[in-house]
Specification:
Layout: E1 2-3, H1 12-18, E2 22-23, H2 29-39, E3 44-48, E4 52-54, H3 58-67, E5 76-80, H4 86-90, E6 97-103, E7 124-125, E8 130-132
Length: 134
């Protein structure tokens, strides 16, 4: 698993190491993402914006999604932040995308926004949200 952190938080390296991930650092988000993809050993890449963590139920939901029928496995999965405003509570699609799971070949490494990482593929949005931890 590779964590391409898009942050300058000083604890990001410690968190990535504790999680068994590789932290890819670069002054620009696209550079960090490119380094993270290059360092990844597997085909499935999980990119999470630093400062966010999945809510309970994340592992089960992702396992159900990716371990069932391989022909129906999505090309990409988007993870949105928890609703923080009344508008985003009413319209959950307003919550920003702060995490992506995608296959290496389906990632647009030059994207500058997480929602644009999947290459033209229709992505599934997880029910599990990401909570702010910083």
């Amino acid at each position: 698993v590779t964590l391409a952190a898009i942050t300058d938080a000083p604890q990001a390296r410690m968190i990535a190491d504790h999680a068994g991930c590789t932290l890819a650092e670069s002054p620009d988000p696209a550079g960090a993402l490119g380094k993270g993809i290059a360092a990844a050993r597997g085909d499935l890449i999980f990119v999470l914006r630093a400062g966010f963590a999945p809510e309970a139920g994340f592992i089960e939901e992702v396992s159900d999604l990716y371990e069932r029928d391989q022909a129906r496995t999505p090309a990409a999965t988007l993870m949105r932040a928890q609703a923080e405003t009344w508008a985003s509570r009413l319209v959950p699609a307003l919550c920003p995308v702060e995490g992506v799971i995608a296959r290496r070949g389906d990632i647009n490494a030059t994207a500058t926004k997480l929602a644009a990482l999947p290459r033209g593929q229709r992505a599934v949005v997880l029910r599990t949200r990401l909570r702010r931890v910083v």
